[in-house]
Amino acid sequence: MNIHKIATQPFEDQKPGTSGLRKQVPVFQKRHYLENFIQSIFDSLEGYGGATLVVGGDGRYYNRQAIQIILKMAAANGFGRVLVGQGGILSTPAVSAIIRKYQAFGGIILSASHNPGGPEGDFGVKYNTGNGGPAPEKITDAIYARSREIEVYQILEAADIDLDQLGSSSLGSMAVEVIDSVADYAELMQSLFDFDAIRDYIRSGFRLAVDSMHAVTGPYATQLFETLLGAPAGTVLNGVPLEDFGGGHPDPNLVYAHELVELLFGDRAPDFGAASDGDGDRNMILGHHFFVTPSDSLAILAANATLVPGYRDGIAGVARSMPTSAAADRVAAKLGIDCYETPTGWKFFGNLLDVGKATLCGEESFGTGSNHVREKDGLWAVLFWLNILAVRQQSVEDIVRDHWRTYGRNYYSRHDYEGVESDRANTLVGNLRDRLGSLKGQTFGAYTVDYADDFSYTDPVDGSISQKQGIRIGFTDGSRIVFRLSGTGTQGATLRLYVESYEPDPSKHDIETQTALGDLIQLADELAQIKALTGFDRPTVIT
Ligand code: G1P
Ligand code: ZN
């Protein structure tokens, strides 16, 4: 075996963010850049000699080249076997499922999620542990520390592996198995949902459209919806993964998934529409001329879980990220189960899922999932909705309105200011922090501040503490304003403003969201001086 030890020097900017290391492609293409980070991952782990690693990505530009490098480095570092998706393709939830099913040591996911791809687009690397979930901060901190002192990495000199050919081969003494990207995941979905009921419902005339946005879910969605559930060919839109996602922004929201939105809000609209993101962990749910807010989606899945075979016996608890609306809390209260409020990022759900404190989890950022894997899971959420619809035989809108009548409506919106100069964003957050201590009890128009803090979370399982996770200003009527800076962007800073109010009265459930939240949005600007400090006169994206 020809293992090379290559001398290298640290890069200063390899700190993993909300979801792994994300940079623009040219940064990852710098000499030794990817190799340094991969070696830093391996150096931060113990006991993987001879063990199995899962590797795959969302098919974006640089996926294939990165995989060849990672395979050779895994061989040089002593892994026994790598399972890699055909063509280098594995969705994020599929990696999680495969790690768990084959009891792998861990996995490496190559993706920048919903960020655009292509030679000038974004790329990313994330490490997942043996439970199938994103590495906890203890590990990502160790990786970062290692990346700052690394001096050498190891790589096997060998020919590239043919990633398109299913089957086994070897790299030095390590086995490489190119596996079907979809099969294990589809099998898991069939174990959770009533495919017969959904198939019958589709056959009876229920019409759906699923937009894969030229990203990783194309092959998964085609197999699940068209092949296994019998939906007509063409149900899956943009189903071929492309290295640049067809020039699009593979983020399933009302702005970026506009093709699907136009379809669902147009003439002859289908009954149901869904989209997923670059790596397949996000979802957007639409009904006929109707948008389901992700926070509501989590609450509705929780309230209807026992209609679905995989959750027939009920759910143990619900968890949501702090900025996600409190709609799920109301369902949990009614069910008599716990609801956990965690910092932003799926990694914070891992412990709760592992010990069985939570069964369903969700984030306002179009992420929902459960204990079936340790990632959020876009197509899982779509199937969950389809299963509920097939059982209840009501429209998406009727189900949501029923829900609001029972639990009240949490009006909710997120405003993003993308590409703000970092200094300006930090000043804004710093100013807010300075004011936090004096806000409690102050009245602004109809709103009196009940609490104001910088969210801190103590993990109830391992006691680890995560501080400064977002500024919350809560009012006595239950409404909230939250500010935080994105941890996934690659250029400048992204300020996120989250606004929520609660309306129990069904006669007031028809107000347009931005109108319903208008006063709070204005108050947020007054408190944080968003326009003045960012230089933006409006958000770049509203969801
Ligand atoms: C964003 C979302 C967050 C999600 C993450 C990864 O992170 O807000 O909920 O977990 O992407 O998909 P942010 O950019 O806000 O740090
Ligand atoms: Zn994603």
Task: Give a verbal description of the structure.
With 543 residues, the chain is an alpha/beta fold. The protein folds into 3 domains: 3-181, Alpha-D-Glucose-1,6-Bisphosphate, Chain A, domain 3, CATH 3.40.120; 185-407, 3-Layer(aba) Sandwich (Alpha-D-Glucose-1,6-Bisphosphate, Chain A, domain 3); 409-542, TATA-Binding Protein. It is 33% helix and 26% strand. The chain has a 7-stranded mixed β-sheet, sandwiched between helices. A 7-stranded antiparallel β-sheet has the order 20-21-24-25-26-19-27. A 5-stranded mixed β-sheet has the order 11-10-12-13-14, with helices on both faces. Helix 2 packs across helix 3 and helix 10 runs parallel beside helix 11. The longest helix is centred in the C-terminal third of the chain and has 18 residues, at 422-439. The radius of gyration is 23 Å and the shape is globular. The chain starts with a strand and ends with a strand. The structure holds 1-O-phosphono-alpha-D-glucopyranose and zinc ion. The site of 1-O-phosphono-alpha-D-glucopyranose has 14 residues, from loops.
Q: What fraction, in percent, of the residue positions are helical?
A: 25-40%
Q: Cα-atom Rg, whole angstroms?
A: 23 Å
- CATH top level assignment of the largest domain: Alpha Beta
As for the CATH topology of the largest domain, it is: Alpha-D-Glucose-1,6-Bisphosphate, Chain A, domain 3
Task: Outline the secondary-structure elements.
Elements: E1 3-7, E2 21-24, H1 25-28, H2 33-43, E3 52-57, H3 63-77, E4 81-89, H4 92-101, E5 106-110, E6 122-128, H5 137-147, E7 152-156, E8 167-171, E9 174-179, H6 183-192, H7 195-203, E10 208-211, H8 217-228, E11 236-237, H9 258-264, E12 272-276, E13 283-287, E14 290-292, H10 294-304, E15 317-321, H11 327-335, E16 338-342, H12 350-354, E17 360-363, E18 367-370, H13 378-392, H14 396-407, E19 409-420, H15 422-439, E20 443-444, E21 447-454, E22 457-458, E23 465-466, E24 471-475, E25 480-485, E26 493-503, H16 513-516, H17 518-528, H18 530-534, E27 541-542
Parallel strand pairs: 3-4, 3-5, 4-9, 10-11, 10-12, 15-16, 15-17
Antiparallel strand pairs: 1-7, 2-6, 5-6, 8-9, 12-13, 13-14, 17-18, 19-26, 19-27, 20-21, 21-24, 22-23, 24-25, 25-26
Helix pairs in contact: 2-3, 2-5, 7-13, 10-11
Bound molecules: 1-O-phosphono-alpha-D-glucopyranose and zinc ion.
